[in-house]
Amino acid sequence: MDFSKILSQVLEMAKDATTNGLIKGNTKNDQIAKVGGAAAALGLISMLFGRKGGSGLAKLGSLSALGSLAYQAYKKYQEQNGTASTLSQNEFAEIDSHAASKVILQAMIAAAAADGAITEDEKAAIVAQVSQDTEILDWMNQEMNNPASVEDIARQVGNDQALATQVYLAARAVCTNLVRKEIIFLANLAKALGLPDGLVEQLEKDAGF
To answer: How many structural domains is the chain composed of?
Structure first.
């Protein structure tokens, strides 16, 4: 599967759904289910993210935009602490897009599921749209039914702090209401990723949370 393409589509559709006012508290399944297939399934997932993330996701219209936002926050954090940036902007822009996109998607789905808000009806609607695409179906089923743990996400990220900031930022964008379970999930994610509190605060500030 082309996870880079999938993430780009999901972010773009979530952004469009949010900025165009399609999300009013419930996913509008009928509006995109007509498309059918994997495209509709991605649309349903995007609208789920948009419903939960709202305006936060409007800032993350692409992987490059996510990387740029994360870099600017990282740079400010380093400057405020009187240290030179140890990571360049290229390191944020030139991450392995396939591997990065996969773990970012996993983090977003895990964040969406943190408060149990992915309902059985939403799962069924998404699965119904990809019933003919077994590869995507299997992956989506796995992630929705058994969301990646913060430890698993952190293992995939490894010591790549540029990727870690983007993973956290993407997950945070899905959790704008911050109910207790989401707060716990995000705190555990930041800890697992090894992100300093000050950097987390700067990421959230720059993203407008």
So the answer is: 1
